[in-house]
Write a structure and sequence with these properties.
With about 130 residues, the chain is α+β, with helices and mostly antiparallel strands. The protein has a single domain (about 5-125), classed as Ribosomal protein S10 (Alpha-Beta Plaits), CATH 3.30.70.600. It has helices at about 20-35, 70-85, 110-125; strands at about 5-15, 40-45, 60-70, 95-100, 100-105.
């Protein structure tokens, strides 16, 4: 990945019990946090359902962001930030896609999460 731009598709499920306004603020805060850890750009995916699109049952809202980054150090920071974000709220889940690879961050144990994060980063370190 070093020296070339890569993009991650990040589906964010904020969990139940959040209204539209709160979801929009959470996503705006997450976008800012991603930029602060070094992402080159964070945009809403074209054609993605808006954050107001509820999942079945109308209990959970989601959105898709495209995170552009240019090196593996930023990839590491982004993935760790996403993991911390998930743990800040009940029912949160993030699905990260890079090409054909898919990585889900939810309430896994710390040890399991650490192994998965390191494995994903290692796979994409030299993309």
């Amino acid at each position: 990945m070093d020296g070339t731009m890569a993009s991650l598709s990040v589906r964010i499920d904020v969990g139940p019990g959040n209204d539209q306004r709160k979801v929009e603020q959470m996503l705006a805060d997450l976008r800012q946090d991603l930029l602060e850890v070094g992402a080159d750009a964070v945009t809403q995916a074209a054609g993605a359902p808006p954050s107001s699109a509820a999942k079945a049952g109308g209990t959970s809202l989601s959105d898709v962001l495209i995170v552009s980054l240019s090196n593996s150090a930023v990839l590491t920071s982004v993935v760790h930030l996403l993991g911390r974000w998930v743990k800040r709220g009940a029912g949160r889940k993030i699905t990260v896609r890079s090409g054909e690879d898919l990585f889900v961050i939810d309430y896994a144990s710390r040890e399991t999460e650490a192994r998965l994060v390191e494995s994903f980063i290692e796979m994409h370190r030299n993309d």
